[in-house]
Write a structure and sequence with these properties.
Layout: H1 2-8, H2 11-36, H3 39-67, H4 71-84, H5 115-139, H6 163-166, H7 174-181, H8 186-189, E1 199-206, E2 215-222, E3 227-233, H9 239-248, E4 252-259, E5 262-273, E6 288-299, E7 308-314, H10 323-333
Antiparallel strand pairs: 1-2, 2-3, 3-7, 4-5, 5-6, 6-7
Length: 343
Amino acid sequence: MLGFLLRLLPFWVREPLLIAIGSVLGVRIMYLAVHDHDRVAAGLGVVFLVFTAIRVYVVVRALRARRNPSPATSADGAKADAAAQPQPQPQPQAQPQAGAGSRPGPGTPEKEPNVWGQAIAAVALFGALAAALWVGPRVMPSDDNTPQPASCSDGELEKLPKAYKEDTPQPVTGDELCKALNRPDLAELLGTPGETATTASGTSNTAPLTDGKVAQPEAEVRFDTYTVNVSATYNDLTTDQYVKLMKYGNEQDIKTLTVLGRPAVFASDHTMKLEINLGSGGSGGPVEQGPLARTLTVALDRKDQGGYFDVTVWSESGALPDDSVLLGIAEKVLPTIPERTAR
């Protein structure tokens, strides 16, 4: 179809257009071939450049033919002049009949095409094609099926509990925690750089059994391998007191340390697994024990006046990363949380 359309174009439109397209494609393909060390692409680029050289040769010959008419044309002109001279004994000749099908005589000059007009038309046509190629990928739907990383939902419409408005300093919201956690390098920090976040969310909750008086926002980013959760609890519980509570609970592998100059503690515990049946009965299954999770708890401030961040990682398979992974996430994420949380 494209070849048929090109054959319909005048010579001085078609040839410059083919030269422009062939030179651009040839140079581009040769550049990619040299950059990627691809012999097949190099051969294809040579084909385009040879094709372009042939079209240039054809145009040059056509220009020379227009500037230097052939001798046969001059000879025909001389014969026409000699025939125009009166003869001593003219012979009667039949007069040509005028008709729609009469053709001009040898001496009738033919109207030459406007070379400049055709050149301008060629440039305009090439510009239109280039604009179509540039705009096309932006207008037409893309066939790229590469999954895009999940983004945090906009929390502007979320109605915050009173604890977020009355406490001083003002707690961060779940949306702010989500934006701090959903970093472009989070998968690399987890040791799975090839993965993309599938979901990212943040909620502005309050701690249970506090009658909505203690803010406890949290954010969660899920990958194929691991899930990362970061929460903040704005109570008066110090890290030392929290460690004592851990020892009475089911936490395992408790290890204290200092992170960003603040008291911190590592601990492990099982998550909870809750199945909800959306069938006719609408009843849910019993709460079961989920996979093991590893949590790094860091105090909100250096003086440990109360409150803490929890950085938790778990996987459906039950595999856990090294503690250094959680430490790296905490050192990257916590400093990006708004400083108004400091006490």
